[in-house]
Write the structure tokens for this entry.
Amino acid sequence: MTQPVRHDAMRACNLALVLGEVHRHGALTRAALAELTGLTKSTVSTLVGSLLDARFVEETGAVRAGERGRPGVEVVLSGARMASLGLEVNVDYLAARVVDFAGVSRVSLRIERDNRGISARSVLTAVRKLASDALAQARDLDLTVAGAVLAVSGPVRDGVVLSAPNLGWRNVRADSLGVPVSVDNEANLAALGELWYGGGGSDFLYVSGEIGIGAGVVVDSALFRGTGGELGHVVVSPTGPPCRCGASGCLETYAGQEALLRAAGVPTVEALVTALTAGASAVAAAGEALGLALASAVNLLDIDRIVLGGVFGRLFPWLAPPVEAVLTARLSALRGSVPELRPSELGDSAATLGAAGRTIHRILADPARFLPR
Amino acid sequence: MTQPVRHDAMRACNLALVLGEVHRHGALTRAALAELTGLTKSTVSTLVGSLLDARFVEETGAVRAGERGRPGVEVVLSGARMASLGLEVNVDYLAARVVDFAGVSRVSLRIERDNRGISARSVLTAVRKLASDALAQARDLDLTVAGAVLAVSGPVRDGVVLSAPNLGWRNVRADSLGVPVSVDNEANLAALGELWYGGGGSDFLYVSGEIGIGAGVVVDSALFRGTGGELGHVVVSPTGPPCRCGASGCLETYAGQEALLRAAGVPTVEALVTALTAGASAVAAAGEALGLALASAVNLLDIDRIVLGGVFGRLFPWLAPPVEAVLTARLSALRGSVPELRPSELGDSAATLGAAGRTIHRILADPARFLPR
């Protein structure tokens, strides 16, 4: 009675051993696998046969000379059959991703929507719909999705989201999705994403900066579960602004996405990045061109002061350095000095003020003409 | 027959003389005016009487001890009656401004509208409407508008706009507006605005940066009319991009408002200024707060590497310096070194990748359970 059980258990263990080596090392020959696992070559061949049948692995076309002995075909993880579903509820979007067994993202769905002030039940209904779309697409790709994990920002214990202050959730459990599903903390899962698919190495603190700020710690290539992960609620200044969590002066009130965009006065992170990169370089390039044109003007007109008005007045702090650099490079040798640059403070009003001033000066020049009859 | 004419001419001249001194010096007593103009005190008193009657000047309440002799009431320019209308046609707006004789803007109207690809006639109809609104408001303020000047970007000769390439105008003359109206170059008028109402002093080159780029030169407090003012069409690079003016590589193609915003990838100058100021300082402040929270985390957890993900990953180039500065300040003495900071390259995908990876690792740990039946 116990014989088949023990045999099955041992086979299961050896399958995991072989597959684990292929995962760790990448392409391996059967001979190399036998060496790494300590199993006999014939056992390895049988196990690899099962893994090939199950399409957990596939043989690579490449054949190379073994170091000792005959050339061998290599096996690698295969993304042909097995896959997995990753889901995420964030404050401002829902996402689903099907990753195949070889680690390739095969399906990626994302819905931008504000999930605040909406019941957890209704959000989870939307997640179920998104998951079912992703599963349908996976089926079309001939993939078998073995399970799903849902990422939620907030502390999770035993599959229950204890609280997600930015979502207004308390004690929420994941719905059934047609595949086994569990819930975990977003930052912890992102740290695992970084460990498995990113470049963070085997030991790091991962900081997840979204509307909430979470953290996950990876030690020796494993998630360190000892941390709460709620970096967003670490106190930065005890007398700081009130936080959604009930405390005040939390990191989130300073560096959370909403606090950041509000302080920056831009609607989206894209706008902020664009502005910080393209904005600065665009102004620098414009300043250089302006400097060249002004250097020509100064060479022709002998001017000691240049007032930058209109748009240039408003952009003066960023525009002046490149303009000055060009003026210095092109004029200082010949003239010994460079004209003073200053911003106009009249902005858009300069032209209408000047236009109005013209008539004022006509009156000043001949007030008698404008005396009342 | 000639007596009254000569008398009138002299009186007109003296009125201008007295008014000119009040304009130049500000508040002056009649005695000071007599001294400055060389006129007798009684002549000055008569002239000031006329100017007071016409509400060109008004007496100030303040009375101070004259340097030699009795205290005197001072007169200053008055904005109570006379005023002037300044108008502007720009590529993306129309503006009207009523400035009173004391130099105070009393009415300011502005319409944002794209004036390109619209006939000059139709634009001037809109200007006439705007001007008439401004004149009506001036009347309500009991102001007498003595004349109007219209600012247009482009070379103007004898009251005719020779060409305004950004507007598509050629040989356009100003309409009648119910008050005498003349047209002048926008940059020249803005230079006069800077001279009369700004802080540029008496000698400067004024650069007007809008969609077009104009320039006006002020020498000895007067507009130097020798320049065309079309700085935007000074060549910056002979092989540069084609310009609306027919040439190529003009300054405008590099530093005009449209070129600048296109390069910066933002819709408006406001967005660019906001991004350059608020954006940078918001990210710096967020980085400082994040640094403080991470320093606490590092003190508790002994971490050597920190991966910044999500929004923080995208903002890494700007966020890392303030974070590092805080970490160095707070940790280096105790630890001797500061954790390495690096950006995650997974962006928004980290959590779903990690979530999906979890199931992949469940399969890796026990593939036998997932063998096909």
